[in-house]
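Notebook, bench 3.
Goal today: get a predicted structure for Class I SAM-dependent methyltransferase from Lentzea sokolovensis so we can plan the truncation constructs. The sequence was checked against the plasmid map this morning, with no discrepancies at the termini. Length recorded as 259 residues. Pasting the sequence as submitted so the record is complete.
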Amino acid sequence: MTFAPEWLALREIADAQARSTELADVVRETLVNRNPLTIRDLGCGTGSMGRWLAGRLGGVQHWVLHDRDPRLLGLAEAGMSAFENVTVETREGDLTSLKAADIAGADLVTCSALLDLLTTNEMNALAVACVEAHVPALFTLSVAGRIDIDPAEPLDAAFQDAFNAHQRRVVDGRRLLGPDAPAAAEEAFVAAGASVRTAQSPWRMHGDALQSEWLKGWVDAAVEQEPALASEASEYLRRRSTASVVVHHVDLLAIPGAA
């Protein structure tokens, strides 16, 4: 699955405001004696995670940006190269079969808004890879399957349930984790022997451009999953366009025992 650069640019400010600075502080303290740092960013998109985290970590850093979309990799590399004391390399390819050997030597593995696109087996394998390689993982903005809209109305639950079911759909024989990703990630890392901390990282929107684009995609996915909602979609979009919306996410920091 690939994402348009325009969508990634639109959400970058909301992502930056939502991610847990507390977990980022723990990462910095955990890696304080390591210089330079090597960080592998999985599903990097246009590099927003790096732009958010690099300044918080400080020191000399080398980022290895992974994505399957060469266009996004080019944008990410250009955006990250503006940082002083930061070097960048890119890796194009599939992220669902990484092994410990693929991330060995890294000081940190990161990702943002990625885990919902994995399967349970892929999530388990990624956790094992990080722990076996003794590399901490900071995984941010995993969708939690819960939306708060104010003022509320009865149709909110129907669209939310349909969207969550759509996120759990089967794609090319792979059943996606969708909103089960935060719990699956925590379970996988604990089972692999890591200590885990989580934090809430909600988007908060009120009638802005991000809300408009997000809401359209949310409703479209719900209707694709439950076609009976199609007759309600247009008026529902109109009513909800000026509401206050909170989209809940979870950030996770996993630290292997020997990291």
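Residues 209-225 form the longest helix (17 residues). DSSP finds ten helices and ten strands in the chain.
Flagging this for group meeting.
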